[in-house]
Amino acid sequence: MRLTILSRSVRIASTARLVEAARARGHAVQVLDPVQVEMHLDRDRATLYYRRRRLPSTDAVIPRIAQSISTYGMAVVNQFALQGVPLLNGTQGISGARNKMRCLQLLASNGVNIPATVMARSAGDLRAMVKLVGGVPVLVKLLRGQERRGVMVCESLASLEAALEAILGLGQDLILQQYVRRGGLDVRVLVVGGEAVAAVRRRPRMNRLAHTLNRGARLEPIALSEAQRSAAVKTARLVGLEVAGVDLIDVRGQPKVFEVNASPALAEMERATGLDLASRIVARVEALVAESAPVGRRAQTRVRPLPRAQVR
Ligand SMILES: Nc1ncnc2c1ncn2[C@@H]1O[C@H](COP(=O)(O)OP(=O)(O)O)[C@@H](O)[C@H]1O
Ligand SMILES: [Mg+2]
Q1: What CATH number is given to the structural domain containing 194?
Q2: Residue 235 burial class via C-beta count within 10 angstroms: exposed 0-12, middle 13-18, buried 19 and up
């Protein structure tokens, strides 16, 4: 098949692995930088250009849309969706995962356990809000950063107040979340096509100065418990992702899902587990392409109506 990967660069380790795995399975692969894709749209046509050249048809697309170009990248993904090209993942799933609060709302309302979370636009009533998430220390998560979203731990009401004042003053949205520490296992599960295919435990190194988590975390392979597996698989299904990195904190056998990633890092996880995860993903693309009944050559320009939920 002819596979298109949407990614800022072929030098990104996960992108490089996908290219390698797809070529090894005999596919033709092109990597397109989403911001260099142009889209033409009218009532009858949804056409794509790359650096002003009309794009030849492709059998499937793997979007790996960086946070920093989210809006433009999602328009490109959606343009492929209009052409009926199978996507791994689709627009609905990617944007559903990116909106942290909406994602948590979806999970909680469908019976997936999450850490207690509060969202607010003002620092008033801080005490009451902090109480709702189990008191300090509390996690503050910024929601709308263009580059990386930030997470910080606030150990006291005073430090939290200062942080909130600064963040809200900049017009940033945030959530406060129960900070699970003692006995909490930080787990990333990779779900592909509804199956948990790999799992690692992360040991985040806390930066003492900034109290930022997640940088330089060490990954160790783990065997999934049944509760972890089913929480991860259910999460991917609810959010609508074929490929998902589901992050959860396991507290005494009770997994609480706190984040879902639609473009999970593959290379690090492969190194930690020794598994060929890129090939699992390419195999899933092959299955989806085989399922999407090929009616001769795909009509490249016809606009297909999207399911309602996908139009955002
Ligand atoms: N509720 C929580 N309790 C304890 N640690 C958490 C919690 N939520 C997130 N973390 C830690 O903080 C890191 C970053 O949080 P995350 O929600 O994934 O934000 P980001 O958008 O930066 O990926 C996680 O990888 C995890 O190690
Ligand atoms: Mg994360």
Answers
A1: 3.30.470.20
A2: buried
Q: Which residues line ligand 1 (CB under 6 A)?
A: 115, 139, 141, 149, 151, 177-180, 186, 202, 204, 213-214, 247, 249, 258-259
Separation of 155 CA from ligand 2 center, angstroms? 20
Q: Residue 131 CB: number of other CB atoms within 10 A?
A: 12
Residue 223 forms part of a structural domain: yes
CB 100, CB 172: distance < 8 Å: no
Provide the whole-model pTM. Answer: 0.91
Residues 187 and 218 occupy one common structural domain: yes
186 in the same domain as 164: no
Atom of ligand 1 minimally distant from the CA of 202 = 27
User: Mean pLDDT of successive 10-residue segments in the chain (312 residues)?
Assistant: 97 98 98 97 94 95 93 96 96 94 97 96 86 94 69 92 89 91 90 98 65 68 97 98 97 96 96 98 97 60 56 42
| Closest ligand to residue 137's CA | 1
What CATH number is given to the structural domain containing 21?
3.40.50.20
Amino acid at 75: A
